[in-house]
């Protein structure tokens, strides 16, 4: 089970009510098919060996005995397969009948998990045939096998994270679901064998219920539903199978189509989230544990991995998120202005993406506060690397948002500084670059002092991760509105604003669109002979879409570089070759560690996503930590 990835499945076989032999044939075929597809855990519907809709036939010894014989045959005919599976069956014990999920692996019936909550309302009348389980883990003989019945957790002895438990249909809908206790006791996967009939509106409710239970339990949740073959005398079953992982649907079947769905779940990700959440309790309760011992397969990933984990794939969702994020940023700044009784702000406007977003947010905050936009002082400070394109865009933005405006050329100030410190102006080294950034910050701070205002920071999350900021230069402000916004998202936020103002201000919309299309650059080196940007950030530190991908998995889940490399290879197949991904991942690790000192003294700013680097909030790290162990892990990768 490499990197914590495990393929699981939910199956709805064709059945005939009461025909255990026919049903078993189809169950066996599903297990073989799943094993051939490298699936390590397969879940079947409730009572699928007999059919859920047998009614009073459940009172017949003939049916119960046939079900027992069928399960023994299923176990025998799948004994050579490296797969665990859970199948629904009625089980008689001590003259009582239980609705159970039987866990089978390598020919062994490991145990029976009885249904805890027996519905007896509306269309359900299960108490007529079954009773809730209330025994204390009785050992039992089933056929010729010693096995168990009760609250069971199944642990793979080879891969400890592969740990699952079983609940049945109504157990999920009940106020006290068994899955809560199972997960507290360490189960990472919950299997639900269900017979949920279809009525209008239930599909959406069922989907939300599975999704939220997987989030509440911080687990993988596999839901297998009855389908074609069940009696339609009074009910319809649609075979609505769902696989969710911590609040996200990974796979879902189409209604009224029997078959198997698969998902590649990430148990390492589940473990990471549980470790991070100190409110996720881990304790021993009442469950009995059973082990199984096959080696889960190393799978070739078929899981969807987005290139842009910070940016939704769906355009409608992206539009909603952009609107909400800009509102959050503006609300943070608005609150700071009100708390400090400040009605002026200073924004350094370069004509690039980050400063544009900062101005958009500042304008909206001032609108919320009822402060005239003229109280925003937009400052453009051309110097050695400023191009006409970015300069003109900066001027146009200030005019479009009706802000105050200052143009302060800092060339002479920087040249005087070079003279003071004895630096050759023709030496375009880091001193040449950083002197410009620090001069600009000094101008902004002093202007803010003059008017009793607040300097709004422009630097984004991606720059903070890479340390791509001048210490005590653009690194510093009085409130950093972009500090938790990754570069890949900044671009979409500005595009969102361009679309939002298109009908009311076409000129502004076109300026914003041009800014989005402008190469990312600090413009600290002289332009080309043609007057174009010569210093393109992504040619120096690497593509931001890669770095944002690395950042997300490194911070959000604490994944090892080797696993991040594997995910990146999969997500960016066809966009970047392995050598390129490896190169920039190495750069990310080195820069992330060595530039922590810049993050240790960040100005305040609002957190808007699950990944943030504020030293007061989400990320605390020594500035002198070694990255040797992480590089050693990456070096294990075979190119």
CATH architectural group of the largest domain:
3-Layer(aba) Sandwich
Query: How many E-type strands?
Result: 20
* Subunit arrangement of the protein: single chain
Domains, number: 2
Question: Which percent band covers the strand fraction?
Answer: 15-25%
What number is the mean pLDDT? Answer: 95
CATH topology of the largest domain: Rossmann fold
* Apparent shape: elongated
Give the helix proportion (percent range): 25-40%
Strand order of the largest sheet: 13-12-11-10-9-8-15
CATH class of the largest domain: Alpha Beta
Low-confidence stretches: none
Which class do the helix and strand fractions yield?
alpha/beta
Instruction: Provide the CATH superfamily of the largest domain.
Output: HUPs
End-to-end gap: 21 Å
Summed up, the helix count is 20
Rg (C-alpha, Å) = 30 Å
Main sheet record: 7 strands, mixed
